[in-house]
Amino acid sequence: MSNPQRTKGRLQFLLIAAIFFGPLLFAAWLYYSGDGLQPESRVNHGALLEPIVNLLDAVPESRIHDDRAWRLLYAEDGECGEGCQQALYTLRQTRLMLGKEMDRVERVFLHGEHAPDTLLGAEEHQGLKSLHDPALRAVLDDQRPGSLPAGGFYLIDPHANLVLYFSPDIKPRDMVDDIKRLLKLSRIG
pTM for the complete prediction? Predict the structure, then answer.
């Protein structure tokens, strides 16, 4: 065999070996290096409240149990000032952004000693349920993750389990993503 033919045969062999082993070596590099094209994990925007607390057990006398629906709750101890009104607006917009699923979620405003302005509730926040319940507020404060700021939103399932806590500065779109995911997986409410 002449030298040019031998070189051509070796190049063909190396090309075939590279086609076969190349993807294997690339995959091994991606797997072991950790730098490769790894998919990002799906992240909830809200904090999962663990251990699960059932509000029927924790506060059996509470009016929060009147309806068997998903509830998005905002709690405010003081007067409903600008921050509170913004939170109620976020609550309303989040529910509206749920689209066809919005009938499965009701909005609840847990207020302190000072009842909210009924005119504000009737005009701007139609359908908002308002209640004063210090025992419920104590349970919610106890269950909120200590690393997250107070003044956020709680998601309660139809069985009265505390499910998620959303921080006060969350964007409605992020809350909607989590709620839609839960409603899609849930057969209740």
Answer: 0.73
